[in-house]
Amino acid sequence: AQSVAQPEDQVNVAEGNPLTVKCTYSVSGNPYLFWYVQYPNRGLQFLLKYITGDNLVKGSYGFEAEFNKSQTSFHLKKPSALVSDSALYFCAVRAVNFGNEKLTFGTGTRLTIIP
Amino acid sequence: DAGITQSPRHKVTETGTPVTLRCHQTENHRYMYWYRQDPGHGLRLIHYSYGVKDTDKGEVSDGYSVSRSKTEDFLLTLESATSSQTSVYFCAISELGDNSPLHFGNGTRLTVT
Description:
- The structure holds two protein chains of two kinds.
- By secondary structure, chain A is mainly beta.
- Chain A contains no helices and twelve strands.
- Chain A has one domain (3-114): Immunoglobulins (Immunoglobulin-like).
- Chain A has strands spanning 3-5, 10-14, 19-21, 24-26, 31-38, 44-50, 56-58, 64-68, 73-78, 87-95, 104-105, 109-114.
- Chain B is built from no helices and eleven strands.
- The A-B interface holds A 4, 32, 34, 36, 41-46, 49, 51, 90, 94, 100-103, 105-108 and B 4, 40-45, 48, 56, 58-59, 90, 92, 98-99, 101-107.
């Protein structure tokens, strides 16, 4: 079975500092990987995805993520945090070519940017 | 924002009553999904649809049913609501299925007393 782990429930970062939100996964074979962000009282919004190709994926709002196959990780990063980046972030994974398997979401990481 | 409307936005109901949540899309996307969001669990898939009248079960489908009679509407029914079904329910759509991004509605907060 596939799974996603977001080891930190809460991450606090000072405004202007780089931020990292961690995600590790487990699938049979190759993965499709996604990051979503959720603001209060809203649905999730798509940030970026890794399907194939370059390990460094760039997405919305200046975010990027690096796919590391050997470490089975897909950490979300941003060089300089903004207060407006404060939100709940979800990583999701699906195995490539694995029947009818659907996306599995992590439990989320709450990111707080401190002014 | 993608054209997804969930109704109602909030509902309080009593244990044992049936409840229907509605998801309406204006994007003409083929795939539609119902998720529930609970603290400590992230999002879990309840049911999904890959076309009109084509639906299938997700991870946590017990106690729920769905129907899709039109491309734009996907209904989630709690046949006999229980307190464990108190949650926030999200509808999502995607154009190409599992490899394409999901677009989410703003959710329905359901409380079963």
